[in-house]
């Protein structure tokens, strides 16, 4: 989610100019380990080795306050606020969406199972893993420009992915992915609704996500949980996911209900996910529990209920050990981030559905990116010749930010936003409507709700009529 807008008043853009002055970062002195910008290595097995770090380390945000910007915006619509680049991470929101595919092995696992219950378990794990990369990612991705696209083909992982920014007000991102073995199709559209609650910013998800398992002739749909960023006024920024996610198998009638629990007053429920899978007659088939920041387990309902009863029967005998419980100083502010150890109370006999990938050792210096995220903006040799001219990798503001050139990145960001505003005014003057290139508005065939559907043809690489947005 993001705040930048093509009809922002520009009243807050002066904050961008102050960014470079306050940063003590020389891109020429930065750590440039690994291969970058066209120097991707080839392993012995012929599979490309993607980069393992960014060209320049992350800068410190300690001298900046989100509140210094937001306090000027009371009463304004959040989607029309221009935030300084210091609060960004060097990825477009279209690239952030692509991080759904980090745990694609779960889709492959779902395709391989003959049992529909096991397929639903794998799909549920995939839905939870899709938000796992957001853990500790408090930098906001760049708002995509209208008509911006992003493609990713990973032969080693067996998929290709295309997304497009199909609307700017409201901001809507549409995506489509397919298995290279023609075993699945994954598509959807996302248009989050932002709310500012004073101390926090909440992004309520809108849009349907659809996964089709072609071999089994099955389709699953769901909507992501709500994401909330806390301590935007003072303190350390932290985020949580909460809300109920319902995954529906439209072929069998099975449903998975996942409850992403809110943090609570003392943080004991932070990151926790609990739920169940039920058949079309509402009979519970299995129970699911874990944390979206760590792992997900499942067990049969009888075992789960017995465990819960014993937990209550013994009073607090099954309570977490003090070292695993919430550690909170008396001097902490009430809205400070609860510090908890990432551990899940294991119920004997449970089956592991998913565990989060370990992050690179230098992740904290790279905006807390996962290894998958680090590779997303990599521009390999010869890629410019085949990419659509609207691809995120070609955005000069993101590219300069990634390279540590913050002053240039800030100026490029303003230039692109002004170019977008001018193009919009020109279309209004000539009474010309904007036409999306790779997606069209239609109806989701499984839910009957409005959706953005892939029109096809992107990988034919006819980019002659793509708009000039950079």
Automatic annotation (TrEMBL):
Entry annotated with the keyword Transport: yes
GO terms, molecular function: cholesterol binding
Coiled-coil region list: 399-433
Gene3D superfamilies in UniProt: 2.40.160.120, 3.30.70.3490
A GO BP entry: lipid transport
Record's keyword terms, sorted: Coiled coil, Lipid transport, Lipid-binding, Transport
S-adenosyl-L-methionine keyword on record: no
GO cellular component: cytosol; perinuclear endoplasmic reticulum; plasma membrane
Family as reported in the entry's similarity comment: Belongs to the OSBP family.
Protein name: Oxysterol-binding protein
Species, as recorded: Trogon melanurus
